[in-house]
Design a protein that fits this description.
Blueprint (H helix, E strand, L loop, with lengths): L2 H34 L3 H44 L41
Helix pairs in contact: 1-2
Length: 124
């Protein structure tokens, strides 16, 4: 396994550990809030705050993992392009211009035509 994979794996494990710490803190805070709550509504609010904190922690974990995966793919992609011995040139296109789309998209509101002759149609 390359060194970059180990680094990513360790970073992912650190992110998971951070997530668990945030969740544990949220649970402890919920317990404290419930202990001082005077009504069922206050207890329910404490539970909802905990759930929101847990959701933020999970979202942060997945965002960090996605960031690392994107960096890995970018590094892999740039490495592959620098390793090529031959280059594929794209046709020059004016800045701001777009290449034509083939086939062109159907007009808005136009009936869709089949891309092939319907069954039973005679060929020419």
């Amino acid at each position: 396994m390359p060194m970059q994979s180990y680094k990513e794996k360790i970073s992912n494990m650190a992110s998971v550990a951070k997530e668990h710490i945030v969740i544990c803190k949220a649970k402890a805070q919920e317990k404290a809030e419930k202990a001082t709550a005077r009504s069922k509504e206050e207890k329910a609010m404490a539970k909802e705050r905990r759930k929101a904190k847990e959701a933020r922690a999970k979202m942060q974990l997945h965002a960090e993992k996605a960031e690392r995966a994107a960096r890995r793919l970018d590094a892999k992609h740039s490495h592959l392009h620098t390793a090529h011995t031959h280059h594929h040139h794209q046709p020059a296109v004016a800045i701001g211009a777009t290449a034509p789309m083939y086939p062109p998209p159907p007009a808005v509101g136009a009936a869709a035509a089949p891309a092939y002759p319907p069954a039973g149609a005679k060929s020419l």
